[in-house]
Amino acid sequence: MTTSPHRILIVDDEESMREFLGIMLSREGYDVESAQDGGQGIDMLRRGNFDLVITDIQMPRVDGFGVLKHVLEHLPETIVIMITAFSSTEQAVEAMKLGAYDYITKPFKNDEIRLIVKNALERRELRRENRQLRRELQDRYSFHNLIGKSKAMRVVYDLVEKVAGSRVNVLITGESGTGKEMVARAIHFSSDRAGEAFVPINCGAIPENLLESELFGHEKGSFTGAVQRKEGLFEVAAGGTLFLDEIGELPPMMQVKLLRVLQDREIRRVGGTKNISVDVRIIAATNKDLESEVAEGRFREDLFYRLNVIRIDLPPLRQRREDIPLLINHFFEKYTGRPMPQIDDTAMRHLLDYAWPGNIRELENVVERCTVLGTADGPLTCDALPEQMLNAGRGRSESLTDIPENGLDLERYLADIEKEILLKALDRTGGVRKKAAELLGISFRSMRYRLAKFGLGEDDETAGDE
């Protein structure tokens, strides 16, 4: 398929300049037209679609600022480059503050113009692709696309819906693979920032000596290899959301610098001397127990409280087993475009009873495997399931001491078991805490303490059972 050449409009009251730019850019393969002043240029912009406008600043009737204003108000996908004399660069800088992409000064070099035009058109394509991607992501990651009907997930949905309309910082906690980034995206794309960037970064995946530059940017020459100025992710996410995944891995020095940014809403590039204001919403996530990290001195308490304004705890998959069939169906549709096939009873029992140490991420991998190994004309059987799932036994009680290949968080794992036993005891006793305590062989006082520890305190049904 042949791609149409980019259309460029040159607006200049000097005929020689229009001819020079027209010939040079036409030789580069662009479709070039010209206007002799700003008024004619605006008329041509109203009649045709142009990817790029190169306009002189000083012109009779309507100057370059008038052309720039028209483009900014009516043609958001069109890029503007200003032409100015060397003595009038202050005006060009002012035009860039208003929204022009760049400026060139007379007299200029041909290679300079070619490079600026090439970079400007690449920026336009990137912006257009980003807008399209954001529209697709908004449809894909909206609040209504979170999957699950369990009580634990309904609590998550309620919190997502409440915090999406605010600008407070959010901390998402949960084991690896529970969908923390999916929830962060749901918050962003359900908020008034949905039209701006969602920028994720894994704080544990970037070397410490590069992390500051990645977050805050750097100036040209600020260190070896800094051959040009670079915007950090805080600037890239301006107006949108910055998702700090694995925030518990942030080195101590970066914790201090992040705290200052959250307090002042300003950054300073590495090697820079000026503070830059940033309007960014922060959503952080971790699979660590940050309270324990604070108590052990590995995470700053003041930063924890800055991040932990609203907290969303994602349950592990083993605590929301009723959602497993829904998730299986979702992933089958994702990989095959068809609903989940029939699954025989034994295979389904393995899927429901498995402990899922890798949570939703592991489930997705298993479903992808099943789409390859399962038969197209019959029910899904155990033959398509991985060996470790079949060997894990039919009940979680048979594999309590199994350790996944990638290890586990012992404290969180034991806490999950304790919480699940408490909930099952309450369920068996109809929510009567005193009877649940007797069932578990602990005192009522101990029962109250354990329930409070997991946020399972009194409600209308259990408040009077003392």
Count up the domains: 4
Helical coverage, percent range: 40-55%
N-to-C CA distance: 76 Å
Number of strands: 14
The CATH class of the largest domain is identified as Alpha Beta
Radius of gyration, whole Å: 29 Å
Strand fraction equals 5-15%
The CATH superfamily name of the largest domain is P-loop containing nucleotide triphosphate hydrolases
Indicate the CATH topology of the largest domain.
Answer: Rossmann fold
**Secondary-structure arrangement, i.e. CATH architecture of the largest domain:** 3-Layer(aba) Sandwich
Spans of at least 5 consecutive residues whose pLDDT stays below 50 are 394-398, 459-464
Count of helical stretches: 19
In spatial order, strands of the major sheet run: 2-1-3-4-5
Q: The biggest beta sheet, please?
A: 5 strands, parallel
Q: What value does the average pLDDT take?
A: 85
Helix-and-strand structural type: alpha/beta
Oligomerization state: single chain
The backbone outline, from C-alpha atoms, is: elongated
How is this structure best described in words?
Helix content is 47%, strand content 13%. By secondary structure, it is α/β, with parallel strands linked by helices. The chain folds into four domains: 7-133, Rossmann fold (3-Layer(aba) Sandwich), CATH 3.40.50.2300; 145-313, Rossmann fold, CATH 3.40.50.300; 317-399, Helicase, Ruva Protein, domain 3, CATH 1.10.8.60; 410-453, Homeodomain-like (Arc Repressor Mutant, subunit A, Orthogonal Bundle), CATH 1.10.10.60. The strands form four sheets. A five-stranded parallel beta sheet has the order 2-1-3-4-5, with helices on both faces. It has a five-stranded parallel beta sheet with strand order 7-10-13-6-14. Helix 4 (89-98) links the parallel strand 4 (79-85) and strand 5 (102-106). The protein is elongated. InterPro entries: AAA+_ATPase, AAA_lid_NorR, CheY-like_superfamily, Homeodomain-like_sf, HTH_Fis, P-loop_NTPase, Sig_transdc_resp-reg_receiver, Sigma_54_int.
